[in-house]
Structure formats: C-alpha cells, structure tokens
Amino acid sequence: MSFTLSAADFLSVLPESILFAMGMVVLVFEMFGTGRDTRNLAYLSLLSLLVSGFALHRLAGRGITGFGGSITADPFAIVLGMIFLLVVALIVLVSIRYLHDRGVGHGEYYALLLFACGGMMLMVSSTDLLTIFIGLEILSISSYVLCGLIQGDLRSNESALKYFLLGAFATGFLLYGMVLLYGATGSIRLPEIAAAVNRSEVRGNPMIWYGLGLILVGFGFKIALVPFHMWTPDVYEGAPTPVTAFLSSAPKAAGFGALIRILTEGLGALTPEWSQVLWVVAALTMTVGNALALQQDNIKRMLAYSSIAHAGYILVALVAGGRDSLGGVLFYLLAYAFMNSGAFAVLILASSPVRERVTFEDYRGYGYVEPALALAMVVFMLSLTGIPLTAGFAGKFQIFKSAIDKGYVWLAVIGLLNSVVSVYYYLRMIVVMYMQRPTAEHPPERVVPSVPLYVAVAASALGVLYLGVFPAGWLELSVRSVTSLLAGG
Amino acid sequence: MIPVTHVLVLSAALFAIGVSGVILRRNAIVVFMSVELMLNAVNVAFVGFAYGLNSMTGIMFVLFVLVVAATEAVVGLAIMLAIFRNRGTLNIDEFNLLRW
Amino acid sequence: MVAEQYLPVMYLSVIALALGAFFTLVGILLGPSRDTAVKRTPFESGMPSEGSEFRRYGVRFYMVALTFLIFDVEIVFFYPWAVRFRELGFYGFWAMALFFVILVVGLVYDWKKGALEWE
C-alpha cells in the first residue's frame, strides 16, 4: 500500500489550509508584534478570508474529492463555505473598533476567528464522521475561547464556562452516536454507511437507532434546538457582542450543513423515521424560541431566543426534504447571516465602552438622533420578521411553500403563526426607536463614526434588500447545489 | 475471547455514570471530569467495535478523540482558572450573573 | 469456556484480598492502640503539617500543567507513525514534518507569551 499526496488531495482542502496557515501567521505577528494595535491583523485576516474565498470559488464545478473521498468540494460545501467566509468577514469588520476601544487588543482573536472559519468549512465538506468531528471541534474550541475573550469580565467568563461545559457534554453525545453508527455499519464513511443502512439486517439492529438518536441530541445542543436550548441566551448575553453575532449565525449554519449531510448522504434510508422526530422538534423549537423572545428586555437576549426560532424555521425545511426545501435552507442561512450580523453591527456601533446599549430602553427616540442607522435597523428587523421585499421574506416563503408542497401543511401553519408572533418583538424595536420619547436616564447620543462598522452595516443592509428584491438568482444556485447531495442518498 | 457485548456494556455504564455526573455534580471541575468519562466511554466502545469488526478505523478514531479531549481539557481548565481568579469559586450554582 | 481462562485471575484476586484482610485484622487485634494527637497527624514522623489543604497554589503550576498536557498528548500521533515509518515513506515524513511545524509554532507562542517562565 502506498501513500502519496495527489493534487486533488491538496486542492480539496486548499481553502481551509489557507485559513489555518494564515491564522498561524496572525499568531506569529501577534507574538513578535506591533504593540497593542491589532488593527493591521484585522486587515490581514480580511485578506486571508478573501484569498480563501477565491480558492473556494476556483474549486467550484470541478467536483474534486480528496483523501480517499473523506473531503469533497461539492457545490453544497462551496456554497456553505462562502456563507461562512462572508459572516466571518462581517464579524472581523464589526470587531475592529470594539476590541480597540475596550483595550482587549488580542491578535489571537482574529486567529481564532480564522481557525473557527476553517473548522466550519472542514465540517461541511467532510463525508466522513471523523473529519466532521475534527472540524466541529476546531470550531467549538475556538468558540469557547472567543466567549471568554474579556478575561477580567465576570459575564464573559461565565458565558465561556457555560458554553464550554455544555458544548463538551454535547460532544460526548455526538461521539457516542458516531460510535454506535460505526458499530452497526462497520464504517465511518457516509457513502458506506448509506450502503449498509440499505440492507435490512443492518436496519433491524437497534444500535443504529440509538446512534441516530444520540447524533440528533448532539447536534441539537450545538445548534440549540428546543429541548437542548437552555444554554443559548446565557452564553449569548455574556459573550462580547461581536462574538455573539458570530455564534448566533455561522456555527449554526455549519451545524445544519453537517447534519444535513449526515442525514441525507449517510442515513437517507431512514428519512421517514428521523423526519418524524424532527417534525416535533421543529414545532417545539419555533414555538418555545418565540415565546421566550417575547419576554426579553435585553436585545442580545431577544436576538438569542429569536435565533432559536429561526433554527426552527430552517428545521421545517429539513423535515420536508427534497431539493426545493434544502435549497431553501441554504438561501435562509445566507439571508439570516446578513440580517443577524447587521442587527448586531448596529448594536455594536451604538455602544461605547462607557455605555453599552443593549436594552430596548436605550433606543428610545433613536430614529431622530441617528436616522440612517435606525433605518438600517428597521430593515434588519423587518427582514427578521419576514416582511416582503426583504431577504427574510424570500427565505421563509421558499421554506414554507416547499413544506406545503411536500404535504407538511400543519408544520407550515405553525411556522406562519410563529412568524406572526415574532412581529411583536421585532416591531417593538421600531416602535421604541420612532414613537417613544427618550427618558432622562437613557438619552440617545450620536455614535462615534467608524468606517469598518459602517461598511458592515451597509453591506448587510444591501445584502438583505438585494436578496429580498431579486431572490431568484441565489435561490436557483442554492437549489442546484443541493442536488448532488440527494443524488447519492 | 471476550464478546464485544461485554465491552459495550462497560462502555454504556461509563457513559451513564458520566452523564449522571454532569447532571448531579455542582463543581465545574467535577462536571468536566464527568464529561471526560463520557468521552472515554466512547473510546472504550470504539476499541470494542474495532476488535469485533477487525477494523483499524475505530482504533484510529480513538487517537483523535484522545487528542481532542486533551485540547478541550486545556481550554476548559484555562477558562476555569480565569473564573476562579475572578470569583474564588467553581460552584456552578453561584454563576448566576446570567440567568441559567 | 471464557470463564475458565480467567480462573487464575480470580484465584489471585481472592488470595490477595484474603491476605490483605488477614494482615489488617491481625494488626487490629494484636497491635497496641495509643491514640494521641501526634498519632493522628497525617505524617507522624514527617514535618508537622500546617494550614488548610485548600490553600492556593501558584498560577505557574497550572501554566506548566496545561502546557504539558497539550504537548504530551500530541505524542500519540507520533507512535503509530514511528511504527509504520518505512511503509508510510515520504508522504508520512512530510505529513509529520508539517504536524511538527504546527506544534513548534505553538511552542514558540507559549515561550513568547511567557508561559515557560518560572518567575
């Protein structure tokens, strides 16, 4: 047996390798560094993301697989990879001033973001339980550290500890699920697992059902589905705001990506069974997430609970299955990345080290002090609600329409009712900004301008509007890129 | 030759002990040790299956789980160290700045 | 059949337990028992212990422990590689070299950040 590294092996992990290598370069610069000013490292990170995106773009359409089929650069992985790169680029933009102002000028921050991004890309391009696990852990371990970034801050500490303990707990369940699948099918490769599951004697083995269940529990924790969502608001509230923006969109997208790949490519033969379980979980996730978001006064917490509800909407599409639904997932993930990052970018721009603005009260009368910024916030809130001409509407429309086409009418109805409920807390932000008088203890102030933050807000707002007005192009691309997944399963 | 079932029973027992430890214990370090027990239960199961299936894949997976568990331990202990310096306790019931 | 193979192990365990129990019992029955304050200290003929066992240890111990833990465990990848070095050939060599470079970057980072300084 000979071991050689072919060009395909090398190319299949090139975008990830660029990120990991550049992450280390950032670390080296930080060590021999330029004092406390890490802004240059931020721009270096942006450049790395760009180069990695270019490499990913060049891989498109070539159908390269590497390392004996463990890594594949199929359209699904490439589209998701682009979403991750975009989110991380937006996060880098919103972090620059936040870190600089608070004197937490760690160059490690950017290195960890790059590592996390590489981990996510590895996770969705793997067709092997081991590499999925490695990618997930690169992401998770980087995220634990990112949460605890502000060492002296008790809330940041607490957030990191809770995230760490529950994340590690979830890893245990996920791994136990993986080992049972390995035991039942004799392989950790998804195509081989799929072949084994098609045989009835393997399907009769109870181990495969326990394995499936435990994997769902593990991913349920990681992407905060309802019986396993308790950690989310605490972690999101305590983490530094740019990190919250990151955690609430990109890792969820990565979790969904890997889950979709395992469930369709590996366990496609069990679809009738897992879709029943996920039906209940989706209904619960949407409803509980929205019910809890209603009661929040802290906007970070509100967005955290609402991110649970959005995970529920995406799960509806996973339950419905098929090209249109799964394409809808990719569309929704991109739309959510824009609207969520945008909303957080406004929060960060409005806050200063002296004064964090994270409650609804802080934004009384804000529409008259910062009209442009308030308008951008309105766009993000409308999109999160799902009002027509925004990205959120196009995404929800696609998901619920394809669910109804597949006969999941009740699930779509529950989703629509939940969207109606969510109007209350999203529009509350708009009402507060435009229709309430500021109080003495919450005076609105003009923000300190910052070019990278303006760029992030503008890019997100444009993205939301573009996807809302012209959804067809991206939607078609999304639907096309999930086709390769379903062909095998 | 030991039947694979025995190994699996051991692994399931270890996993159950780990899960109950996470749920019942209140000290962050002990909770984390219980998580490590869960990961090691996974390792036991992997070795058992690799032995039963006569495949090296399971053994290889164990190496990666070991290393990942160690890196998790390092990051987790560093987080706990930071929290202990600031608060002087590792009792998770006292971490109530954010509603649990 | 399976049980027979393990019979010697069982004999050994039973004998070891019985022997341990026997000597402990003999000590309790025949030995003198004088209960004084000195007798009750953990190290009767050592240094007198002082303070609570829950006193704080220096942070540097933790730093060393964490550094040790991470670099120690990475070694597991070297063992299988070393055993199959010839079969893996140049591919294995360069793969391991890359892995090693990554570890060295980590070590240098540790060093520069002062995690290896004792004082």
Topology of this structure?
The complex is a heterotrimer of chains A (489), B (100) and C (119).
Chain A: H1 7-12, H2 14-31, H3 39-59, E1 65-66, E2 71-72, H4 75-102, H5 107-125, H6 129-147, H7 154-185, H8 190-197, H9 200-203, H10 206-222, H11 231-238, H12 241-266, H13 271-293, H14 299-320, H15 323-350, H16 366-369, H17 371-385, H18 391-405, H19 409-435, H20 451-469, H21 472-488
Antiparallel strand pairs in A: 1-2
Chain B: H1 4-24, H2 28-53, H3 57-87
Chain C: H1 2-5, H2 7-30, H3 59-74, H4 78-83, H5 85-112
Q: Could you describe the 3D structure shown?
A:
The complex is a heterotrimer of chains A (489), B (100) and C (119). With 489 residues, chain A is an all-alpha fold. Chain A has a domain of 211 residues. Chain A has a two-stranded antiparallel ribbon. In chain A, helix 4 runs antiparallel to helix 20 and helix 14 packs antiparallel against helix 15. Chain A is globular, with a radius of gyration of 22 Å. Chain B is mainly alpha-helical. Helix content of chain B is 78%, strand content 0%. By secondary structure, chain C is mainly alpha-helical. Chain C is built from 5 helices and no strands. Chain C has a single domain, classed as Methane Monooxygenase Hydroxylase, Chain G, domain 1, CATH 1.20.58.1610. The radius of gyration of chain C is 26 Å and the shape is flat. Classes of the chains: A mainly alpha (489), B mainly alpha (100), C mainly alpha (119). Chains in contact: A-B, A-C, B-C. Chains A and B meet through helix 6, helix 7 and helix 11 of A and helix 1, helix 2 and helix 3 of B.
Explain briefly what this protein structure is.
The complex is a heterotrimer of chains A (489), B (100) and C (119). Chain A has 489 residues and is mainly α.
Low-confidence stretches of chain B: none
Mean pLDDT of chain B: 88
Number of helices of chain A: 21
Shape of chain A: globular
Portion of residues in helices of chain A? over 70%
Shape summary of chain B: elongated
Q: Indicate how many domains the architecture of chain B comprises.
A: 1
Instruction: Tell me what the CATH architecture of chain B is.
Output: Orthogonal Bundle
* Beta strands of chain B, count: 0
Q: Low-confidence parts of chain A lasting 5 or more residues at pLDDT below 50? A: none
State which percent range the strand residues of chain A make up.
under 5%
Assembly type: heterotrimer
Rg of chain A is 22 Å
SSE-based structural type of chain A: mainly alpha
Strand order of the largest sheet of chain A: 1-2
Proportion of beta-strand residues of chain B: under 5%
Helix content of chain B: over 70%
What count of helical segments of chain B does DSSP give? 3
CATH topology of chain B: Helix Hairpins
